[in-house]
Predict the structure.
Amino acid sequence: MQDKILKIVSELEKKYKSNNKPSKGGILDTLIATKLSQNTTDKTSYIAYKNLKKKYKNWGALTNASLREIKEQIKVCGMADTKSKDIKNMLNNMKKNYGTLNLDFLKKYKTEKIYDELLQYKGIGVKTVSCVLAFSMGRKVFPVDTHIHRVLNRLGIVKTKSPEDTFEKSEALIPGRKKISFHRNLIKFGREICKAVRPLCGLCVLYDYCEFIDKEDFYNSKAANKENNFLILDNI
Ligand code: SF4
């Protein structure tokens, strides 16, 4: 299995060239951006995040804003009621618990302790914390979303029923130094090629490694060819 994983990692590196660099934002920036991204697209959650950054000079200023005002800034990304409440409560509780909204002290903690610390806040789950660990702290964790869950199952790397199970199983399988770049490459691959409904198996560089039972049908399907044209146009 390790050999197969390394070959898949290498094929996707050739195709997408994602890096392991952490994001530029701080811990709280990543936490809030990831919270906003729940159940929506990158595009709308990024707009909501930018709206908040523009409206409030820092995250402390957001704690003094009304829920109505916060909702207005983030309504573009959906679930604005829950997200605005969760973010405001989380920031208020952090201020109470730590006396500051600078979370840099977490960098001194072991990974397990950071999970314990951040999972106490309502609306923050394992996936969100794993994104914070990977992207704002450079820890060797492998966040799993629905794309990664689907692709790893089709490839036969895991046989799991939920992204949470995939996260648990894949943690030990993916080499630490590749975790972040492989995460980024798999998301791109899941969005562009190994789509949920009609995977473009005819264009797939991982076809020979894949254990998906219907891959031959999708390889030959006209629908896939139609989508290929769209993909190419999309890249112009
Ligand atoms: S062959 Fe098809 S199902 Fe398998 S990984 Fe490639 S796109 Fe996904």
